[in-house]
Amino acid sequence: MIFNVAEAKANLSKLINMAFHGEEVVIAKNNLPLVELVIHKPKSKIVFGLLADNGKDSADECLLADDEELNELFYNSEIEPK
Known about the structure:
Layout (H helix, E strand, L loop, with lengths): L1 E3 H6 L1 H9 L4 E5 L2 E6 L21 H6 L3 H8 L7
Parallel strand pairs: 1-2
Antiparallel strand pairs: 2-3
């Protein structure tokens, strides 16, 4: 159905409900179709770089993982300072 801008302003809630229930709603100006009301479809989440699921450990797991050799150097070192 085509509605002029003035009609659309006066009946916006009705037009939204119509579009939600699958009806084609077009808003026109001077009888020239300008826009169509459609149901909003959320975009998928964008995942960048290390956070992409590639089957490996997540970034948090990689950053928080203990490295035994590094822990040994920091906490159990018996190396004498020069």
